[in-house]
Amino acid sequence: MTVRSLLCLALLLGTTHAFAEATKYPLTIHSCNREVTFKEAPKHAVSHDINMTQMMLALGLKSKMAGYSGVSGWKSVTPEMQSLLDGLPELAAKYPSVETLLNANVDFFFAGWDYGMRVGGDLTPQTLQPLGINVYELTESCAFVMKRPAATLEDTYNDLRNLGKIFDVQDRANALIADMQSQVAEIRKDLPAEKPRVFLYDSGEDRAMTSGRLGMPQALIDAAGGRNVLDDVEASWTRVNWETVVERNPQVIVIVDYSEITAEQKIEFLLKNKALQSVDAIKNQRFIVIPYVQATPGIDNVLAVETLAKGFHGE
Fold first, then answer.
1. Whose CB has fewer CB within 10 Å in the chain, the N or C terminal residue?
2. What is the per-residue pLDDT across 126-179, written as a single tens digit (0 to 9) for each?
3. What's domain 197-313's architecture?
4. Which helix (H) or strand (E) segment is 310 a member of?
């Protein structure tokens, strides 16, 4: 089972696929619990975080971007992405301010709740829209502002589809979605019925940062033939006590790799955590590591599904 790099593929695609109908402006798009109207395609866009920036680049939108934010501060960039970012300024290492976006003459901000924006914070769709900056919210992150079903890969496809409409690059978006769907179907076709119990560990010592049923890891674990031990938790990215992890007794622990703390250091911490010594995954030292860009909504979700499926079920 092998998966091509969708980002490299996307940069070679062009518009050789069946033509979609061109966007007719003004265009109204649903974004979480809002409607956003675009009079024309954005010309000075900013994406926040590595996964959303990767989506923009995969859709061939680098020339429409004023920059990106929230990448270097979390050390989440991959070598492949670093070269593609050349020529684009990073406007903020972690969180941009309203002033930062205004100074860059930004007309579009692609971000999410807890991905650059915080509920009740200074940087929100409500604060930016009066300043001429339209915001499109990452679908998965809508769980922070509205009731949502469990996360699925359709959340990522929805974002690609909407970006395709907003920037009038539907052909490229549709081709990316079709390729992702095809590769996921190929990965899933021979998966066994048995689903290992899986816990995702992002970070944290006193408590664990992880994902409930509303976060993208839920979709990735499902697609790879596993069961998120927190699939009954009505939350996206959230924190839980170690006692909860012990009670759920995961057979596999998935490590999200980013930041100054390496995946190896995270594994060492878990192995030495006295509270976890009865957990099957700890006793059997069964860990799977995936980069942050694969664990969050984006085109690399396919790579995560492949890695997880191999780790859950073997080659």
1. C
2. 999 999 999 999 999 999 999 999 999 999 999 999 999 999 999 999 999 999
3. 3-Layer(aba) Sandwich (3.40)
4. helix 301-313
Spatial distance between the Cα atoms of 70 and 109, rounded to a whole number of angstroms? 12
Q: Per-domain residue ranges for the chain? A: 6-183, 197-313
Could you tell me the CA-to-CA distances from 34 to 97, 122, 167, 246, 309 in Å, in that order? 22, 18, 19, 40, 36
Write down the number of H helices and E strands in the chain.
Answer: 13, 14
What is the four-CA torsion angle of 70, 74, 204, 269, rounded to 10 degrees? 160
Find the mean pLDDT for residues 180-205.
Answer: 97
Q: In 10 A of CB 49, how many CB atoms?
A: 27
**What is the CATH architecture assignment of 6-183?**
3-Layer(aba) Sandwich (3.40)
> What token pair was written down for 125?
């769709």
In the chain, what are the helix, strand and coil shares in percent, each to the nearest 5? 40, 20, 40
Residues near 100 by beta carbon (within 8 Å), at least 6 away in sequence: 69, 91, 92
At a CB cut-off of 8 Å and minimum separation 6, what does 98 contact? 122, 123, 127, 128, 131
pLDDT in tens, 41-58: 999 999 999 999 999 999
- Whether residue 144 contacts residue 171, with contact meaning beta carbons closer than 8 Å, is answered with no
